[in-house]
Amino acid sequence: MRITRSIIPNLFTLANLFSGFTAIIHISDGNYDRAAICIFIAGIFDALDGMMARLTKSTSELGVELDSLCDAVSFGLAPSFMVYKSMMYEWNSTGVLIASLPVLAGVYRLARFNVQLKGFEDKLFFSGMPIPASAVTLVSYIVFFLPLHIIPDRFNVISTTLIIVIVSLAMISTIKYDNLPRPSINLLKSRPIFSLLVCFGFIGSLLSKGVLIFPSMLLYLVVGGIRYIHSIFSEKSTYHESDTLEDPDENPFD
Hints:
By secondary structure, this protein is an all-alpha fold. 68% of the residues lie in helices and 2% in strands.
């Protein structure tokens, strides 16, 4: 095997996969807190592999495909398994079907992203909710939000089903969701409000020990939907198709 500089970002990508695999093991043992940490660590590696690929100038189609395969496990399979193991097992076969929606939608989302990818540079928007964001939404809901008992326990399965369906539909939709690029002075100057919201959400999530992660992700989900609805009724969209990472091909699930 020929060793090239592309091995550096690929190792980060594989670390993402290892974190997802470890999360599944912790979920099997019923340790959801540790599983959540592993999934969040997978998200960090997922962000770093792209950064390292650009730094080493080794972006490639192989890296894109490898990244998608690892994301399918860490952000698709692991959260779906957590949802089933923690709650949906009570509904037997119906629970299996509902719990499988995030991984099914996520894999479709990744495949669509790969075939429509136009370049390796950062853009402002994704078409459809990114699968790492969906994973963080589901995991933070199960691990941090439900234990607060804001929702009565008898409605937990119903509310969880609703969250699963909404997140899954958001992934396979063509709604434009903000990309979360690397922090930089240029980003702060070009999109100050967006940058401040991301910073406040991150700091608030740390200070609240994870409690504010789900509300922050819910806001991210809702803002994308509101912007999409506004663009339908507006003569001029607030964003351009050239700012997305994918071509605006027709989505059979719309």
